[in-house]
Amino acid sequence: MSLDELQKAYTHTLDMLYRKTNYKFGKLEVRKNIQKLHESCNAELLHRYIQHDLAIEMFKTNKDILDFINKFKEVNGATNEDSITTMFDNLPKEFETLTIGDLLKACLDACEPINRKLISNEFIISLGIWLTEDEKKDLTEFDENGKLRP
């Protein structure tokens, strides 16, 4: 392989990993987005778990949870970046990676919205997930003029 061919291959690889155009994103950008979505979903699930599954009357409203978080932070010197496990013991395993800030966002309905344009059909299929025709229709996005987005 010549130096010029090697440079072209290197540039192509960087483009595949880091591309940030309007409709085609690099693999690492997609992966980061999916990780954020996963964390946001877990934060919302934790919020619902605290409100509905824990048998503690003081956590029935968002305000109750927010007041508890603020009081806990004040008394213990905790920050939004501290793990949620500093506040709650025996949480299900999927919540252990969340922070206090993640729970705050969930209580304030400020979790990351789902940006579906980052998740292409090719990406889904490369993960081995097969979509039905109805699921494909649900995931199809159109522009303002009703035309299929590229």
Description:
The chain has helices at about 5-20, 25-55, 60-75, 100-105, 120-125, 135-140. It is mainly α. Helix 2 (about 25-55) crosses helix 4 (about 100-105). The protein has one domain (about 5-140). It is about 55% helix and about 0% strand. The longest helix is centred in the N-terminal third of the chain and has 27 residues, at about 25-55. The chain has six helices and no strands. It is elongated, with a radius of gyration of 21 Å.
Keywords summarizing the entry:
mainly alpha; elongated; 53% helix; 150 residues; 0% strand
Give the topology string: H per helix, E per strand: HHHHHH
Task: Give the low-pLDDT segments.
Answer: none
- Radius of gyration over all CA atoms, rounded: 21 Å
Overall mean pLDDT: 85
Question: What structural class do you assign from the helix and strand content?
Answer: mainly alpha
The number of E-state strands comes to: 0
Figure out the total of helices.
6
- Give the percentage of residues in beta strands: under 5%
Percentage of residues assigned to helices: 40-55%
> End-to-end span in angstroms?
34 Å
**Shape label:** elongated
Biggest sheet character: none
Total domains: 1
SSE blueprint:
Layout (H helix, E strand, L loop, with lengths): L2 H16 L8 H27 L8 H15 L23 H8 L13 H6 L6 H7 L11
Helix pairs in contact: 2-4
